[in-house]
Amino acid sequence: MAAKTLESQALVVLPAAQRTDLSERRWLARSRLSRAEAPEESLLQVLRLLKLPAPEDGLAALRLWGQLERRPEDWIAAADPVYLQAGLRQLFLHALPLGELPRQDVTQTFAHLQNTLGAGDGRPSFFSVGSFGYLRGGEPMPTASASPSVAAGGAPAEFMPRGEDARAHDQLQGEVQLCLHESRINERREQAGLRPINALWFWGGGSAAPSRPMALPPLYADDPLFRGYWASRGAKVSGWPWDLDRLAEESPQGFVAVVPVTGADEPLATALKTLRQLLDRGSIKKLTLLFSDGLRADVGRFDRLRWWRRDTGLLE
User: Fold this and answer.
1) CA 47: distance to chain centroid?
2) Are 106 and 185 in contact (CB under 8 A)?
3) Cβ neighbours of residue 112 under 8 Å, at least 6 residues apart?
4) Which positions ≥6 away from 119 have C-beta within 8 Å?
């Protein structure tokens, strides 16, 4: 199945819309705004818009493929460091942003877990690549239905596997939490003003299917999950270009781009300003913006003239 041509349409994934400034909100308010009914992985939203098949499982293996630039052959689950906060009646999940995950902390955490829990026949191995953690091998088990960035802020039980099949997941989760509680790494993190890594979020478990070439619009992203899917389809992948004018020049028929998530608002503001300029010049005919908080904006070249559209309710 081939993706339909975007006809000079840019499809761009961005951080949360709440981080936009007033002038950007006024511009976006003149577009066609909608909000997703439920949180979802950005990759799955993009694939649906492009009318492309979504993987049934194995998102963690795809993410690892995007990091290593080769297909992992084993069963893989993401094991992302998170902070579980105890409330009066339930736990709350907090995804730890990359800025709060020094690579040294992640490396040492997974070395400690592997030495403590990963040794033994039939046990999965713990390992990390950059600031991302993984399980490899062992007996496949059910994992959470969403990544921590999608599930964050809510009750983790809504996303975790349930029933008899979840026993292996729950047992391993308990062992990991006990192991992390005894780790000196968290003591050091708390002294540095960082939240402890008191749990791992297992999600995306499965295997990556062999590469199946497919026509996709060019991708500009550093996000490993997007890069892994594009690599699995033998499609063109480039890193995030800080000079966004290149995008329309290199890909006049359309492209997909993922704005990096950083601790600063500058990449988001710069991306929106440049995309707006490309749209005004006609370098892009249509612009679809997918924000990580579920907001979607479909922006046409002449939407800026619709001054009467001032409803910013969805942007709040």
Assistant:
1) 14
2) no
3) 179, 183, 185
4) none
- The single residue listed with the structure tokens 């969403």 is 146
β-strand 254-258 against 219-220: which pairing, if any? Answer: parallel
* Cα angle 146-48-157, degrees, rounded to a multiple of 5: 15
Q: Are 72 and 33 in contact (CB under 8 A)?
A: no
Task: Provide the 10 A C-beta neighbour count for residue 153.
Answer: 11
User: Phi and psi (nearest 5°) for 298?
Assistant: -100, 115
Q: Is 273 helix (H, G, I), strand (E, B) or coil?
A: helix
β-pairing, 295-300 with 286-291? antiparallel
Q: Which helix (H) or strand (E) holds 206?
A: strand 199-206
**Of 139 and 121, more confident:** 139
CA 214, CA 226: separation in Å to the nearest integer?
Answer: 15
Instruction: Give backbone dihedrals phi and psi of 143, rounded to 5 degrees, phi first.
Output: -130, 175
Q: In this predicted model, what pLDDT tens digit does every residue of 243-269 receive, in sequence order?
A: 777 787 888 888 999 998 765 556 788
Tokens at residue 77, please?
């689950």
Q: What is d(CA 171, CA 112) in angstroms, rounded to the nearest whole number?
A: 18
